[in-house]
Amino acid sequence: MNNLAREDFIKLDTLDLIKKVREEFALPKDVIYFDGNSLGPLPKNTIKSLELVIQREWGDGLIRSWNEENWINLPRNLGNQLAPLIGAKEGEVIVVDSTSINLFKVLSSALMLNKNRKVIVSEAANFPSDLYILEGVNNMFGESYERCLIDEGDDEIEKYIDSSTAVVVLSHINYKTGRITDLKKITTFAHEKGALVVWDISHSVGVLPMNLHDLGVDFAVGCTYKHLNGGPGAPGFLFVHSSLIEKVSQPLTGWLGHIKPFDFEVEYQPANDINKFICGTPPIIAYKAIESGLEIFKDLSIIEIREKSIKLSEMFIQLMQQECTEFGFTLFSPKNSEQRGSQISFLHENAYSIIQALISHGIIGDYREPNVMRFGISPLYMRFEDVWNAITCLREIMQTGEWQSEKFKNKNYVT
Ligand SMILES: Cc1ncc(COP(=O)(O)O)c(C=O)c1O
């Protein structure tokens, strides 16, 4: 195979069918951004829509805007806007609370539905918040409940699921490795065993095609601040299959999940639709940012986004092999693109300092313990030339030993 050259990357940019989408983002000129899997960048429209919601809707409209601007229905309307990205039907998704809180709600719902079973299956390599929530729910439901964790690196997930399993809680894309877990296969298997499934799709929403409704997925949760570009700390979302919505209940029975919140009744009576998963008042300013993040996807095909993500990732891995083999990086993400999400991770004993050195050049990736360098691949705004420039810079940092500078050694609180 011929060596890759800069021209190859530039050519791919000219052929890129969705390259214009980049113009929708207010990206700083001197930055190459590989962290959209953690915090997506600012859409230009968000600046305008936040100005509007603050000045006109809140400033002038005041409390009238709950009705006149339809603020009250934003959780549900944004859920419907998001639904096509994950193959959900209208009324199956709601944007609300945080991902962790949503996991608490749907996991409790699943356990209440499958009362006779006592085992919750998840994996040791799952995102820690998911494991902690699981532990909390487990403690709350009582000692008879048991947490069963799939060993790190064990691909034979099926052997952990049997007739005692109440619910299987897994991430669709692993946050550290970028590995995809086969959602269809595991959902089908869990259902055959009578277990329910909860998928954390935080890292796959917006970059991977999904068909949650048709696959019969019971519950899913996810973040809007990653590939959906909804803003720092933006509310999460949850999906409940339409076949379960009426019969399911959830433990955070706040007033806005009531069937008639403004009747101010003494007894709680849940809404008979997805609104029963709302607890308290939605943070409208944050919702407006999610709305403009989602608008970017309106005319885009998720298949096309995935194709570009795979191409960018393949070029990234190939160029790393060509330019950086002698520096001791080990690919931590799956080699096979069908098993890899929109993220490439490498292991290196000096991962933290190397990432910091890259950041000092405006090339922003991130670090995860104990030695993982993560590069998020964001097809909406990433150029092939960015991949060339980033890896060329990485090579220089390694060759010159720049990463060894003292200033790159001190770990920040947020890595
Ligand atoms: C896979 C995954 N699940 C859950 C969370 C937790 O989300 P939140 O802090 O919004 O509750 C994150 C946060 O990054 C995540 O990556």
Walk me through the structure:
There is one protein chain. Helix content is 36%, strand content 13%. It is of the alpha/beta class. It has two domains: 6-43 and 301-408, Alpha-Beta Complex (Aspartate Aminotransferase, domain 1); 48-295, 3-Layer(aba) Sandwich (Aspartate Aminotransferase, domain 2). The strands form three sheets. Strands 2-8-7-6-5-3-4 form a seven-stranded mixed sheet, with helices on both faces. Strands 9-10-13-12 form a four-stranded antiparallel sheet, with helices on one face. Strands 1-11 form a two-stranded parallel ribbon. The protein is globular, with a radius of gyration of 22 Å. The two termini are 37 Å apart. The model has no long low-confidence stretch (mean pLDDT 97). Bound molecules: pyridoxal-5'-phosphate.
